[in-house]
């Protein structure tokens, strides 16, 4: 079971830090440009401009919560299955 929880924490770390869902917006009206996954430390990057404006990465909180919830449910179901098999 310790391996399962280790895998769970690695997945949560990847989802919460390494592959964070963001929307790329730019311009005076914050026009939508794209959605992608970026590392958390890249949210404030200024490497490029779009029509003279620095793009802003906006964290997609609801999508992040859904992803963490889905991973948590899947790991919990796997835990219940493994627990039942080990008790038999």
Textual characterization of the structure:
This protein is of the alpha+beta class and 88 residues long. The protein has one domain (2-87). The protein contains two helices and three strands. The chain has a three-stranded antiparallel sheet with strand order 2-1-3. β1 (20-26) and β2 form a beta hairpin. α1 packs antiparallel against α2. It is elongated. The two termini are 16 Å apart. The model has no long low-confidence stretch (mean pLDDT 86).
Layout of secondary structure:
Blueprint (H helix, E strand, L loop, with lengths): L1 H17 L1 E7 L4 E8 L17 E4 L1 H27 L1
Antiparallel strand pairs: 1-2, 1-3
Helix pairs in contact: 1-2
Please give a handful of descriptors for the protein shown.
alpha+beta; 2 helices; 88 residues; single chain
- Residue windows where pLDDT falls under 50 for at least 5 positions: none
Major sheet: order of its strands?
2-1-3
Question: Cα distance, first to last residue?
Answer: 16 Å
Number of DSSP strand runs:
3
Structural class: alpha+beta
Rg, nearest Å: 18 Å
Strand content: 15-25%
Helix content: 40-55%
Shape: elongated
Most strands sheet? 3 strands, antiparallel
Q: What pattern of helices and strands is seen along the backbone?
A: HEEEH
Task: Work out the oligomeric state of the chains in this entry.
Answer: single chain
Instruction: Report mean pLDDT, rounded to a whole number.
Output: 86
Helix count?
Answer: 2
Total domain modules: 1
Entry summary:
The protein has helices at 2-18, 61-87, and strands spanning 20-26, 31-38, 56-59. The protein has 88 residues and is α+β, with helices and mostly antiparallel strands.
């Amino acid at each position: 079971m310790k391996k399962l929880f280790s895998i769970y924490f690695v997945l949560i770390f990847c989802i919460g830090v390494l592959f964070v869902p963001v929307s790329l917006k730019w311009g005076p009206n914050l026009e939508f440009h794209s959605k992608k996954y970026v590392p958390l430390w890249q949210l404030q990057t200024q490497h490029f401009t779009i029509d003279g404006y620095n793009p802003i990465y906006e964290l997609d909180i609801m999508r992040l919560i859904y992803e963490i919830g889905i991973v948590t449910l899947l790991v919990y179901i796997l835990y219940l299955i493994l627990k039942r098999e080990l008790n038999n």
